[in-house]
TrEMBL record:
<keyword id="KW-0847">Vitamin C</keyword>
<dbReference type="GO" id="GO:0046872">
    <property type="term" value="F:metal ion binding"/>
</dbReference>
<comment type="function">
    <text>Involved in the regulation of shoot development and salicylic acid (SA) homeostasis.</text>
</comment>
<keyword id="KW-0963">Cytoplasm</keyword>
<keyword id="KW-0479">Metal-binding</keyword>
<dbReference type="GO" id="GO:0005737">
    <property type="term" value="C:cytoplasm"/>
</dbReference>
<dbReference type="InterPro" id="IPR050295">
    <property type="entry name" value="Plant_2OG-oxidoreductases"/>
</dbReference>
<protein>
    <recommendedName>
        <fullName>Fe2OG dioxygenase domain-containing protein</fullName>
    </recommendedName>
</protein>
<keyword id="KW-0408">Iron</keyword>
<dbReference type="GO" id="GO:0016491">
    <property type="term" value="F:oxidoreductase activity"/>
</dbReference>
<comment type="similarity">
    <text>Belongs to the iron/ascorbate-dependent oxidoreductase family.</text>
</comment>
<dbReference type="InterPro" id="IPR044861">
    <property type="entry name" value="IPNS-like_FE2OG_OXY"/>
</dbReference>
<dbReference type="Pfam" id="PF03171">
    <property type="entry name" value="2OG-FeII_Oxy"/>
</dbReference>
<dbReference type="GO" id="GO:0005634">
    <property type="term" value="C:nucleus"/>
</dbReference>
<keyword id="KW-0539">Nucleus</keyword>
<keyword id="KW-0560">Oxidoreductase</keyword>
<dbReference type="GO" id="GO:0031418">
    <property type="term" value="F:L-ascorbic acid binding"/>
</dbReference>
Amino acid sequence: MEGDHSASSFTSAVSLDKLGVSSIPQRYVLPPSQRPSPHVPMISTTLPIIDLSTLWDQSVISRTIDEIGIACKEIGCFQVINHEIDQSVMDEALEVATEFFNLPNDEKMRLFSQDVHKPVRYGTSLNQARDEVYCWRDFIKHYSYPISDWIHMWPSNPSNYREKMGKYVKAVQVLQNQLLEIIFESLGLNRSYLHEEINGGSQTLAVNCYPACPQPGLTLGIHPHSDYGSITVLLQTRSGLEIKDKNNNWVPVPFVEGALVVQLGDQMEVMSNGQYKSVIHRATVNGDDKRFSIVSLHSFAMDRKMGPALELVNDQHPKSYKEFCFREFLDFISGNDITKGRFLDTLKMKKL
């Protein structure tokens, strides 16, 4: 795949790290009000850790579903353990991710693009064509479901990237199906709700590298945002993810060995008619250590319109959101700086 002509002016965060810069370029420096605060005390919000093995135990399954429902309503985020994805599959996916970002710059730049509609693209920031301030991260994003449609376009270097990342992609796709069934049940919907739409949906993998940063207090790895899809499943190598709680406090998500972080996206907030909230999150960076994450974003099909579930709309809970599809979200981020406004806010219907 040929890179963008705009690549000539592009220097990635990983490249700056390899150059050993002692200060970050001005385009990465956030205004003081948007910088991470180094002295915020630990917030008391507790992020639930859900043991998914309890779903096979009829004596506790209802309690687990209730716990997930509370997490979706109160926080929009939880962690899962005993999720049946082998540690070796997760480790090997992170290994090939590390190898990819260690490639010579010219090799990675073959996949560079500023077009957010490209099914496979390497880049930095969120949308470097629009962002006023860049994010201190590099990424490779690729469409991943159905895997047979897209895997031939993924990076061919490292040579085992497709094999090892493909194993993880398949496993996390199975997990997201299971998680969606539980979340639907916690809303009082049928487990098989939107089954066909989910099977015909999309999965986008965002593989991120957050290099060590010489001035971590001036920048972020990712600016605050919510994901567009139904749910996001995140694998991380160390802490750095932070979520905004209902009191507008930033809460660090602890690193739990072997756990996966589950975040609700805008589609789930719309589908639940506002009962559940998509979580606003950001990534901080570290002065000493790199952080890697593999983010699996699950969505309905590109042009499948999504609105509140009719079962969750009534006189007490009128329809609160307009319908939308994934393509409309992509059009929004290609034309807007998302630090200045959420896509979700454009969907909210004004109350009379």
